[in-house]
Specification:
Number of strands: 5
Strand content: 15-25%
Distance between the termini: 35 Å
Mean pLDDT: 91
Order of helices and strands: EEEEEHHH
Strand order of the largest sheet: 4-3-5
Helix content: 25-40%
Largest sheet: 3 strands, antiparallel
Length: 91
């Protein structure tokens, strides 16, 4: 008797599409308040998921998806930092 393994689904805060968890990257607010990309997907803190392209990051900035997820205003510098990290990280 074979069992079907459940695939975890997450919603992108940029384009609002549901995708498999492994197709998305996790943006994390650490307990210290720093916002970083969590490449492992297991770090402690509040997380939000976003597609692995710059367009969805721009959409998340425009529709304030990350602001809503973290309950605080994300600065312009933080978006630039996330964009730089995303472009440096090869997927």
């Amino acid at each position: 008797m074979s069992t079907v393994k459940k695939i975890p689904m997450r919603k992108c805060v940029g384009c609002n599409e549901k995708k498999e968890k492994r197709e998305l990257v996790r943006v994390l607010r650490t307990p210290e308040g720093e916002i970083i990309l969590d490449t492992t997907g297991r770090a402690n803190g509040r997380g939000a998921y976003i597609c692995r392209n710059a367009e969805c990051l721009k959409k998340a900035k425009k529709n304030r998806g990350l602001d809503r997820s973290f309950g605080e205003k994300i600065s312009e510098e933080m978006f630039e930092k996330l964009s730089k990290e995303m472009s440096e990280t090869e997927y």
